[in-house]
Amino acid sequence: MLGYVYAVLWAVIAIYLFSVGIKINKILFLGAGLFTFMSVWWLVNELIDINLFDGIYGIVFRVVVGIVLALFIIFYVISKKKSQNK
Fold first, then answer.
1. How far is the C-alpha of 49 from the C-alpha of 3, rounded, in Å?
2. Which of 26, 29, 55, 59 is the most buried (most CB within 10 A)?
């Protein structure tokens, strides 16, 4: 049951980041995409009998989240340097 709560929570955060990303900064779309991915992953984990957080599926999840977070940090630092130079 808690998995459904997490899926809804990540979906709400993704929708919020999409709406804020339009107004404030396009980098938030990357974060919204991450939360959308997490929401779908948690929902699918609840709907099927296979545990998607163990084994190779868990590794795939962690690698995707790690790559997106690393990209987010890189893009954030680049955008901060651009804004300081202006």
1. 13
2. 29
Give the model confidence (pLDDT) of 25-68 as tens digits.
788 899 999 999 999 999 999 999 999 999 999 999 999 999 99
Amino acid at residue number 13: I
CB 5 within 8 Å of CB 12? no
* Cα gap 34→25, rounded to integer Å: 16
The domain tally of the chain equals: 1
pTM here is 0.86
Which of 23, 20, 14, 33 lies closest to 71, judged by CA? 33
CA 53 to chain centre: 16
